[in-house]
Design a protein that fits this description.
Blueprint: H1 9-13, H2 17-21, H3 27-41, H4 56-65, E1 70-73, H5 80-86, E2 94-98, H6 113-122, E3 128-132, E4 137-141, H7 148-151, E5 153-155, H8 157-163, E6 173-175, H9 177-180, E7 184-189, H10 196-200, H11 203-207, E8 211-213, E9 216-220, E10 224-230, H12 232-237, H13 243-248, E11 251-254, H14 261-271, E12 281-282, H15 286-301, H16 314-334, E13 338-339, H17 343-348, H18 361-366, H19 368-387, H20 394-401, E14 406-408, H21 414-422, H22 427-435, H23 442-458, E15 463-465, E16 480-483, H24 488-492
Length: 493
């Protein structure tokens, strides 16, 4: 396709692209028209973005149709950066530019001095090239050390000396990221971290559509769609975005975490790396996915977790990956060919949880590991209650109350766990009920049985000790033991 595109202005005038670009359509109009086409064809507007269909997405559509610059406000892990990068979907696939131009000048109406001279000299022989829409997106992460030269540009004295030019000559300009995004989308991530004087430098481009460099009267009427992201805590409480800049941003759109467990699970399954190879087949039980997602929901509601920093959607993603990896390690140790994660694997994934939330003072006293364990227990209890509302586990509880106990090594093989679970009256039968109709593997039945035991523990029907003492010689953890509470019978009745 790219090789068949026009190579100079003459060929461009004779091509289908001429009718589209000769009128000088702006980037925002281009995005509007392409959005019209997507809406008419009922195509997905932002592929891979889940849970925003009735909230964020309509606001983005309205902003594009209004030709607004926009800002996405949201806590970490709410797909803000991904949304910005998907906006290129609203651009034309290929766009003609003057070959070698630093600011992607239009062959019909160049704005930089160098390209205007080349057009005057070469006329229809002016060489052109085509930019794919992915190359028309420029992104900058705002940090306190960003300078106005990084964003807007600066005068290059070396270029002036080599060319024998005055510093005021337009040809001495070294363009920053914003001019280089001309005829495209310019994104700034975490804009509150941008110094106030740099934010002032964005005024003209947002309102008047031009920039000036180093105080010289060089006007560049850039054609750019500008988008930003920010944490709402920075945006409102600490006031790092200066008021005149906020006033110039057309639409302020708030993102959010998944509203339902199902939305969260869809995002996590989409993003997590779960396809393992090496001849091991992986089956992920639905209740394990639900527990992993419920951990994030529990953390977002926990008063000991800092609400201002949020709990990223990356938490369940990394947790699920780590849980599957622990199950993979166990399968490799025992030579098993079928990998089925269990609830114990989620506890083994605690290192993937503790770095994903910040704690308030009360949480700091408890410690991140303890908070993570309590969140897992809470999540297991909630999922267990929802999945087993009408189930009767009295036989299982009776077995413990009559003096039974069960030790489950953290890395126990499927066959060993299955043999022990067979001795507990009613446990495997309830596991089959949980898994539903059909034939289930031994690994799946063991995972379901462990989920039932953890669920009964989380609902305080039985107790569990977890004295994890590592052995110096082998490096294995002590067994976790399930025992009956003396008062369980009273609570059950």
């Amino acid at each position: 396709m790219e090789n068949d595109l026009p190579k100079n202005l003459r060929e461009l005038r004779e091509s289908p692209f001429h009718a589209i670009h000769c009128q000088g359509r702006s980037v925002k109009d281009e995005m509007r028209l392409n959005l019209h086409s997507l809406l008419r064809r009922k195509e997905s507007l932002l592929p891979g973005i889940v849970g925003y269909e009735d909230s964020v997405l309509p606001n983005i559509v309205n902003a594009v149709l209004s030709r607004h610059n926009m800002i996405l406000l949201g806590l970490r892990g709410q797909a803000k950066s991904r949304i910005l990068r998907l906006l290129v979907r609203f651009l034309d696939e290929w766009t003609p530019v003057i070959q070698g131009c630093e600011i992607n000048d239009s062959p019909y109406r160049p704005i930089c001095g160098s390209c205007r001279r080349r057009l005057a000299e070469l006329g229809d022989d002016l060489p052109i090239e085509f930019l794919h829409r992915d190359r028309r997106y420029v992104e900058k992460l705002a940090t306190p050390d960003v300078t106005i030269a990084d964003i807007i540009g600066d005068l290059d004295p070396i270029r002036a000396a080599k060319g024998g030019l005055n510093l005021s000559d337009e040809l001495t300009i070294h363009y920053g990221l914003l001019p280089r995004a001309n005829r495209g989308i310019f994104a700034i991530n975490e804009i509150p971290d941008l110094a106030g004087k740099i934010q002032v430098g964005l005024f003209n481009i947002l309102q008047e559509g031009d920039v000036q460099i180093k105080g010289y009267p060089v006007r560049l009427p850039l054609d750019v769609a500008m988008v930003f992201t920010a944490n709402p805590e920075d945006y409102t409480a600490r006031g790092k975005i200066i008021t005149p800049l906020k006033d110039r941003i057309g639409s302020e759109i708030r993102t959010h975490y998944p509203a339902t467990i199902q939305d969260g699970m869809a995002i996590t399954r989409q993003e997590a790396w779960l396809l393992r190879d090496y001849g091991i087949r992986c089956t992920l039980p639905t209740f394990v996915s639900e527990v992993v997602e419920a951990i994030a929901f529990a953390a977002r509601k926990d008063t000991r977790v800092d609400k201002r920093s949020g709990v990223s959607q990356r938490m369940p993603i990394t947790c699920l990956e780590n849980a599957v990896s622990n199950a993979e390690r166990r399968a490799l140790m025992h030579g098993e060919k079928h990998l089925v994660p269990r609830i114990g694997d989620i506890y083994a994934a605690i290192p993937s949880l503790t770095g994903k939330f910040e704690l308030e003072y009360e949480g700091e006293l408890r410690g991140a590991d303890n908070i993570a364990r309590e969140l897992i227990r809470s999540a297991v209890g909630e999922v267990f209650q929802q999945r087993t509302q009408n189930a009767d586990f009295q036989q299982v509880v009776d077995w413990f109350e009559l003096g039974g106990s069960l030790s489950i090594p953290l890395d126990a093989s499927t066959s060993r766990c299955f043999d022990q679970f067979q001795g507990i009256q009613g446990l495997l039968e309830r596991s089959d009920d949980l898994l539903g109709s059909g034939k289930h593997s031994q690994e799946q039945r063991v995972a379901a049985a462990e989920f039932i035991l953890e669920g009964l523990y989380s609902r305080k029907k039985i107790s569990r000790t977890e004295d994890r003492v590592f052995k110096a010689a082998e490096g294995k953890q002590q067994d976790a033991t399930f025992t009956a509470r003396a008062e369980t019978r009273k609570r059950w009745n």
